[in-house]
Design brief:
Length: 455
């Protein structure tokens, strides 16, 4: 175990006199649980954890850290697979106690504090029949997800989460609180729509919502022997997908712990009146083992994958956009899945089409606006003794499909070992503009424990 740099306890005590949240040092009760994040592979020990209760707490924590030479890591929901929200030594600014949601049905907007999860927002907005593109795992935090772009079930009708972001209460590198909108600060707002945590701490985020009380969605699972045929059918069928229908596909394991391999599609249709006709080809294909598709409130749709990504499981992910979905790539995917070492791991294809692809690649910091597929290798396991073989399988599988990949990388899927070339691939043609923005708002790179844009 590494030695944690000692933070001056007298200075922490002085900070606590004006701090409405809780400050945790390594010896304090609650420290061990507070430092843990969703990915059990991450095992870092901050010098001090600032569990903030207000925007002013965040500002005070930023100023304290900079004045005392402490690295800053920012935790919202704690889901980031790279674990950049935890520092080794330094200060973790923990927003997990800040989860308030305010919905304004009149304007169709909702404001969420930076520690809120998508379940928090979906439930409150759902009471008014409103929704916005959110994480496919409901326990994902709103802040990091949105600042990194935010793909999900509704992106073909609403675009990404960041495309619906209209206001951010931001704590900047000098500890100031700034209300960022398109009218007040258009350049910074552009950067917050996909530039990650490079420009400050999002104390709260306000979204434009849309009416969506009910979707038709769920799972269609086939035997793994049908994997190649299913993925070819999937490729051909989604080429004419209406905006209202989003279909992700992949090779997965049965959620009952049996280890049974399956070829599956997950569907989400936003127009119940048209859903039966549009879903018919997917429901009629082949001889499925499981068909669990029907109408449900949108917040429920966002929970159907939760059990597959339990807190504390060890995770190592790789991903990239593909250059199409050729027969050769499909065959490689099927063959590689036969050798997967963990019954929790999967190979997933996320289809981009519709509204998300009709936005100019430079209109936000997210450049990935082409119709096509994002290939994700979300490897998960429980036993630390299995870490080496699971990471190696993921790397070997990524290498095996590499000739079929496009340059683009999805920012929030980058692992902790992804180098600068991966970060540049995630920002694409927007990297240079983002770097200039970083020079203006964080020239000292105070916020660098992220997928960092070096100023």
């Amino acid at each position: 175990m590494s030695t944690v740099p000692v933070v001056d306890s007298d200075r922490v005590k002085h900070l606590s006199e004006s701090f409405s949240g809780r400050l945790l040092l390594p010896a304090d009760d609650g420290y061990e649980s507070a430092r843990r994040v969703h990915n059990g592979l991450i095992d870092r020990r901050p010098g001090v954890i600032a569990q903030c209760a207000s925007t002013e707490d965040i500002a005070s924590a930023v100023r304290f850290a900079t004045e005392n030479g402490l690295e800053i890591a920012v935790r919202g929901g704690g889901h980031n697979v790279a674990g950049r929200c935890v520092s080794e030594g330094g200060m973790m600014i923990d927003l997990s106690q800040m989860r308030a949601i305010t919905v304004d049905p009149g304007s169709g907007t909702a404001r969420a504090q930076g520690g809120a999860t998508w379940n928090d927002l979906n439930v409150e907005a759902g009471k008014h029949g409103l929704a916005v593109t959110g994480g496919a795992i409901s326990t994902t935090g709103i802040g990091g997800y949105t600042l990194g772009g935010g793909l999900g079930w509704l992106m073909s009708t609403q675009g990404l989460a960041c495309d619906n972001l209209i206001d951010v209460e931001l704590v900047t590198a000098d500890g100031q609180v700034v209300e960022v909108t398109d009218s007040s600060n258009p350049d910074l707002m552009w950067g917050l729509r996909g530039g990650g945590g490079n420009f400050g701490v999002a104390a709260s985020l306000r979204f434009q919502m849309r009416p969506l009380p009910t979707v038709v969605g769920g799972l269609i699972a086939h035997p793994i022997e049908a994997g190649g045929d299913l993925l070819r059918f999937y490729r051909d069928s989604v080429a004419s997908c209406p905006d209202e229908l989003t279909v992700f596909a992949g090779l997965v394991h049965a959620p009952d712990g049996s280890g049974m391999k399956l070829a599956a599609m997950i569907v989400c249709h936003t127009d119940p009146e048209r859903a039966d006709a549009d879903l018919a080809p997917y429901l009629d294909f082949g001889s499925p083992l499981v068909v669990e598709v029907g109408p449900m409130p949108y917040p429920v749709m966002n929970t159907i994958l939760d059990d597959g990504f339990p807190a504390g499981a060890l995770n190592y992910w790789l991903s990239s956009f593909t250059a199409g979905l050729s027969d050769e790539l499909i065959d490689t995917i099927v063959n590689r899945f036969q050798t997967v070492p963990s019954i929790m791991s999967a190979i997933i294809l996320e289809h981009f089409h519709g509204a998300v692809t009709r936005i100019d690649p430079t209109a936000t910091a997210v450049p990935h606006r082409d119709a096509g597929f994002n290939l994700l290798l979300p490897s998960e396991w429980i036993d630390p003794a299995d870490t080496v073989k699971n990471i190696q399988w993921t790397k070997d599988t990524y290498a095996a499909v590499s000739e079929h990949l496009a340059p683009g990388r999805w920012l929030n899927y980058l692992g902790d070992d992804q180098a600068d070339d991966a970060i540049r691939a995630a920002y694409g043609p927007n990297y240079d503009r983002l770097r200039e923005l970083k020079r203006r708002y964080d020239p000292g790179n105070v916020f660098h424990l992220n997928h960092n844009i070096v100023p």
